[in-house]
Fold Cytochrome c oxidase subunit 2.
Amino acid sequence: WTILPAIILLFIAFPSLRLLYLLDEINEPLITLKTIGHQWYWSYEYSDFMNIEFDSYMIPTNELNMSNFRLLDVDNRIILPMNSQIRILVTAADVIHSWTVPALGVKIDGTPGRLNQTNFFMNRPGLFYGQCSEICGANHSFMPIVIESIPTNFFIKWIMN
């Protein structure tokens, strides 16, 4: 009664462990984006290019245009090329944050003193919205994330400027 169920569990576990390992492997990312969570804003660094870094703050309600989303739009969007493997490195400067973009299936914690990494692939152009999903203090929900996915040739022109 114990040996047969143990053997069945082993037959289930070994293929699952192999798949988990393959899913965690990052295959030759085209771009590495470093994200640093601060209290109420995100900082981004394009590690593959020289001196491309910026802070991304939520747009205050009194400064919104008609085309902006309240509590979701930012002053500086992340610009990334579509149809490219993207590696993201996430950390935090003060408390634990969680960089979450549900449409991309990405949720990764940013912990002070630790560098976490994951990858994602965007196969269509557009805007992808997310927020900090960790209870990291007062106003923690006011840390929006906006990724703009554009064709690679437009991304190259953006990088050159």
User: Anything to note?
Assistant: Residues 33 and 88 are 5 Å apart (CA to CA). The longest helix spans residues 3-24. DSSP finds two helices and ten strands in the chain. The two ends are 69 Å apart (CA to CA).
